[in-house]
Amino acid sequence: MKPVIVLVNPQMGENIGAAARAMFNCGIDELRIVNPRDGWPNEKANIMSSGAFDKMPPVKVYSTTAEALADSHYTYATTARIRDMVKPVLTAKEAAVDCRNREASGQKCAYLFGAERAGLSNEDVALSHAIITIPVNPDFSSLNLGQGVLLCAYEWYQLGAVKGLPRTATTEISKDEGEDLPAAHAELDNLYRRLEEELRAGHFFRTQELQPTVMRNVKNMLGRAEMTSQEVATFHGLITALTGKKNKS
Q1: For 81-136, what is each residue's pLDDT tens digit?
Q2: Per-residue confidence at 169, pLDDT binned at 50, 70, 90?
Q3: Taking the CB of residue 210, how many other CB atoms lie within 10 A of it?
Q4: Which domains does the chain have, with CATH numbers?
């Protein structure tokens, strides 16, 4: 199993092509794009990829980050800024070890990259389970999209032939977990939407302006739990018991 690379709101076709070339250099061939500014397909991206797109499965384009992550069990958000969210913070190497261990247990992982100028929004970071930061010169820490993808993909690729991978401090996973994998993002997104709807109906939000911030905090809190599908179903049951409404989604 391999991770997927998700580019959110990429601006220049050349950068998408450079990212594709970098990931395919390291054996990763599934690229997903959310709202590319210049549309898709893109001739400049194709030229910059040096033929990588010809060897990869067709790129999938989505309108939202949540849709792009629907089948992912665990997501790493790449950002140079430490947000006001409580999440594990990993280097690219640590993330690669964690990713390989999760893949060995049957989990599908995703690496999330933001737009060239602004990076990932807080809402996108909230959908992730961990943050990747790449320590470089603090006086000049700017990396372009292709470089960021290459660094993360390279660390993952280097572990391919290594046996007995070390565990990270953030995660302990058993290969015998079977059905106890973390719920896919689509299941969590359904839960988040239902919870937000019921909280709104119950007048939980003091003001409409605070609702996005509160929900971002809720997503962070529940995301850290890495709930299984059964646990998500139990959470739905709790909501049903408290509200008397069955989930229609």
Answers
A1: 666 778 899 999 999 999 999 999 999 999 999 998 888 999 999 999 999 998 88
A2: very low
A3: 10
A4: 4-158 (3.40.1280.10), 185-243 (no CATH)
Token pair of 102 as six digits? 């999760």
For the stretch 27-63, what's the b/e string if a residue is b when 16 or more beta carbons lie within 10 angstroms of its beta carbon?
A: ebebbbbbbbeeeeebeebbebbeebbeebeebebbe
pTM over 0.90: no
**Longest pairwise C-alpha distance within the chain:** 57
Cβ neighbour number for residue 176 with a 10 Å cutoff: 7
* Res. 41 pLDDT band, cuts 50 70 90: very high
Nearest to 58 by CA among 29, 27, 24: 29
User: 134-168 burial string, b = 16+ CB within 10 Å, else e?
Assistant: beeeeeeeeeebbbbbbbbbbbbbebeeeeeeeeb
Read off the DSSP letter of residue 228.
Answer: B
Residue appearing with tokens 């969210």: 85
Q: Measure CA of the first residue to CA of the last residue in the chain; give whole Å.
A: 30
* Measured distance CA(163)–CA(131) in Å, rounded: 25
Structure letter (DSSP) for residue 85: S
User: Is the distance from CB of 22 to CB of 146 less than 8 angstroms?
Assistant: yes
